[in-house]
Amino acid sequence: MSDPLFPAPKHTPPEQKPPKPAVPKEVNIAFAVWVLSAVVSAVLQAVDADVFVQQFVQQSAGRPEAQLPPSTIKTMFYFALGVVALLMVLFAWRMRAGRNWARILLTVFAVFGLLTQASAVGMTSVVGLVSVVITATGLVFMFMPPSNEYFRQFRKVPPRR
């Protein structure tokens, strides 16, 4: 028996959410490639940290207000590398979860990276060529038909037929 001043809550069944779609292997491959790319890129750039520090010191030589100790510059460089690598992994994680905005961000970063690689180093370096292949692989797998269908399932608007 319920109290008229404090009626018992009516039991309403919770809304059934549709099951989350399975992640296609193409999206899983793209995810693995982006994580690999973030790690390899961070490691390769960390190896060249001394070159970066030397260039930074040379560029700021005429400006006393911009001069920092090389150890500080190197620490800041490593910190920036870590942040960028973590952001790339985060975007890859969100892309794998079906977030199209993350796929778009990864695409923009990849295109920018490919253009930078082509203009700065060219295709003469083996490491540069491997980097281009890794990036292109991630792009291709993110936009294969099963991947496109997967991302389409997360849209609020039903897909066009």
Mind explaining what this structure looks like?
It is a single chain. The chain has 161 residues and is mostly helical. It has one domain (25-152). Helices cover 66% and strands 0% of the residues. The protein has helices at residues 25-47, 49-59, 70-96, 100-120, 126-142, 145-152. Helix 1 (25-47) runs antiparallel to helix 5 (126-142). The model has no long low-confidence stretch (mean pLDDT 83).
List the helices and strands and how they pair.
Layout: H1 25-47, H2 49-59, H3 70-96, H4 100-120, H5 126-142, H6 145-152
Based on the model shown, name its key terms.
mainly alpha; 161 residues; flat
The major β-sheet equals:
none
Structural class: mainly alpha
Please state the average pLDDT score.
83
What is the count of structural domains? 1
Number of helices: 6
Distance between the termini: 54 Å
Report the C-alpha radius of gyration, rounded: 24 Å
Level of helix content? Answer: 55-70%
Oligomer: single chain
Count of DSSP strands = 0
Query: What is the element string, with H for helices and E for strands?
Result: HHHHHH
Shape: flat
The amount of beta strand, in percent, is under 5%
List low-pLDDT spans.
Answer: none
